[in-house]
Write the structure tokens for this entry.
Amino acid sequence: MATIRDVAKRAGVSVTTVSRALNGYSDVNEKTRERIKEIAKELKYSPNLLARSLVMKKTKTIGLLVSGLKIEGSKDNFTYEVLCGVNDCAGQLGYELVLISTDSQKQQEKTYNQLVQERKVEGIILQGIKTDDPYLEEVLKSDIPCILIDIPMESDSVGYVTTDNKDGAKSAVTHLLDLGHKHIGMINGHSQAFVSQERLDGYQEALQEKGIAFNGSYVVDGAFLEEKAETETAKLLQKHPELTALFCASDLMAMGAIRAAKKMGRKLPEELSIVGFDNIILSAYSTPSLTTIAQDRYQLGFEATKLLTDMLEGNKGSKRKVLNTTFIKRESTSENHN
Amino acid sequence: MATIRDVAKRAGVSVTTVSRALNGYSDVNEKTRERIKEIAKELKYSPNLLARSLVMKKTKTIGLLVSGLKIEGSKDNFTYEVLCGVNDCAGQLGYELVLISTDSQKQQEKTYNQLVQERKVEGIILQGIKTDDPYLEEVLKSDIPCILIDIPMESDSVGYVTTDNKDGAKSAVTHLLDLGHKHIGMINGHSQAFVSQERLDGYQEALQEKGIAFNGSYVVDGAFLEEKAETETAKLLQKHPELTALFCASDLMAMGAIRAAKKMGRKLPEELSIVGFDNIILSAYSTPSLTTIAQDRYQLGFEATKLLTDMLEGNKGSKRKVLNTTFIKRESTSENHN
DNA sequence: TTGAAAGCGCTAACAT
DNA sequence: ATGTTAGCGCTTTCAA
């Protein structure tokens, strides 16, 4: 592996000159530069980024810290799509990407700061951590630049990107109300997710605007899991046969809800309308296909990266970004005839 | 950020001793070690991996080079699941993971060797590259340890992991034959994929064993794309109305085939049986749900990482691994009554 | 059991 | 326009 010294020797100049020539500094003779470039190519020289980073104290590397990079993620693809966005943006801006995944076991061993400092990432994007995650506190204290995905918290070195969950939920429920539904249940995620709170807010606000009283027993938690949502939906529909529509805080849970409703012999959408949230691939393929609120996960990752690199490069500006949702009408909702 | 020198000063010893103490060398007084560890914790010292790697010439980092880390990948999740496997295995073995994604444009700028050398990965796993990719040649020449996914090529520094595609395809087609189908079409991928050739081989072998002549015009390429598969299937069924079954080289293409068949008014599975390949999430949710050949993409990534790290650590042994498939019967296939 | 010194490959003052 | 020197934070001989 050729080093800068090999190039220097061959060219009969000092390593400094080689460094300057190859890094495009102006104070070097054009002819020398050309010769050096030539030789570098001959020797297949490529700079040792480790050495460079060590002296420059810059790695041009960002980390994507994922809690739970698991095969189950295949179902909603959230992490994958965020990753694509991060990767594309990082690539465009010349940053390397290292993937860091944690689980509660690993968190015992290393603190957030250790994890991040060791790997010499300049900044980090956090995806998939819950609001009661011990790392979160550390993140806010730490001065390592960080962008949180779907956790609206800020500090000097921390920003976030999220979706307008409240508005999305509101439009979902408004859609159901407009179809004449009066008794609308909600299958929410869990209390350790900000997005769940926000979607609940949207649900309530929609009801309020139409003058319908909020009924707490119409809302249950499905933990963002398909199976859990299925059992919870079954219980909910049993207890409240008056429900003619459901708003599910994720498409995956909506899949569970659909299954529960089918098992109970409810015709979809005639006897029960269901709206999801996310617009995952499955939602277009299920039977009935799912009316849902689309959120752009790729963009979430992309914008997170943009915000992060802005911070890294000292561009002052907003450290938060909220993306809009899109309402998608499919087959799982219809007018209420009760 | 505390360095090893800070710890040394505070402990009143040399940096050498600190290094030895923290790295578990035996030739250091246990009391000194304890004191040093104490101080390291106090100072929140964590070693600069860059500096360490620079001197040790080891980075304990592997790269996952993905060609086409794109949002479209959401549909089959191949890359995501491989990534999960790679990540888990790398994590268990103490390797860092950097994600490198290329496209034909980037390949113009940098050669494979540059790309890999610069990032100082010790070895690399290649996922999603086609057999006519210019990088492939470089990989085989290069002496950077590498594991190819789904490309059965070997050299001193290159191994591979793949699925037994031929056997999988054979069992798919045999299933159809056992159901009494005589005229079985195949929607294959494209010629730049090894797996396509292998699946075609399996298709042919199954036919041969049952004494059915191979008919080349029954096989078309769907480029592994849903839409392309849909149009190709439509054309194929039009031209060959005698076909009562299709073997699709991917579930995604099977989705396209299903749609084409439905549009032509064919009842599934009564009038057309379809078998896919992959067992993607969608295959369980489509209507009809898809009979398919499951391949374990997570394991593909996991085994690739194991093979790679074995090479890196000098463990001689096989540099290839072929995983088995599993046949999954669902609703899209039934007996032929023609 | 410990320390001094050298050096990994690079960049950046500071000369010249 | 180019070279000299120092040093990033660490590990590793070699000596004591």
Notes: Chain B has three domains: 4-56, 61-164+297-323, 165-295. Chain B has a mean pLDDT of 95.
